Amino acid sequence: MQGSEKGPSKRRALVVESDLKVRGAMAERLGRWKGWEVLAEEGGRSALEAFPKFRPDLVIVDGELCDADGREVLKSILSSSDPLALLLSSKGEEADMVIGLGIGADAYLAKPASARQVEAVCKALVRRMEKTLAGRAPWPLLAGGIAISPQKREAKIGGRELNLTKTEFDILLALTEAGGQALGRKEMAERIGKESGMASERFIDTHIKSLRKKLGPSAIRTVRGIGYALETERGKEDGR
């Protein structure tokens, strides 16, 4: 296990890879990039034990770990948190990619993949996230009784802060910026940095369901044949 105390501005990356050489190369490259703190784990069990305390901003998981199915490990991580996620897999098949993206991975890379390739994909994911955040207004956006601060990444209803995951917040922000207009699943996926496709559309549906539980069932309405829209006038009948 590699890691140290987190500085106030450091980001963290968790690398879960069974191959010692590959694991070390990935950790070294990511560690040099922007001063990120990297925790490298050989197995899925140790990674799941370390995850709650380490709280990474980015996770890289090998699909074929020595002691577990990497897809299940990643699925478990994303069920309780929402870091950027890259799945590596020696299968390299379309069906495997669909499964990986369907459980919440932001990107999929077929093995063998060099540490340089992994670094490039991670940089692209982080740049996209940072560029999206930098381009958004610093002042709160208001819609349907929900106040959203893009820069602080906070959302409130009646002064009560909502406990949203990264993806839930990004979807809510996209719907808010649409000003009550309907957004298709494909467009929402693209806005939050997901590759388009059936897997990402199911991914959107799952998070919309979760958002409705936190915002109230009438906060987001389904627009048949299009997608979803934020209800700007609260109190209307449930649009699901």
Entry keywords:
4-stranded antiparallel β-sheet, 2 domains, 240 residues, 5-stranded parallel β-sheet, disordered C terminus, disordered N terminus, Rossmann fold, Arc Repressor Mutant, subunit A, alpha/beta
Describe this structure in words.
There is one protein chain. The protein is an alpha/beta fold and 240 residues long. The chain folds into two domains: 12-133, 3-Layer(aba) Sandwich (Rossmann fold); 141-230, Orthogonal Bundle (Arc Repressor Mutant, subunit A), CATH 1.10.10.10. The protein is 42% helix and 20% strand. Helix 2 (44-54) packs parallel to helix 3 (70-80). It is globular. The chain starts with 11 loop residues before the first strand and ends in a 10-residue tail after the last strand.
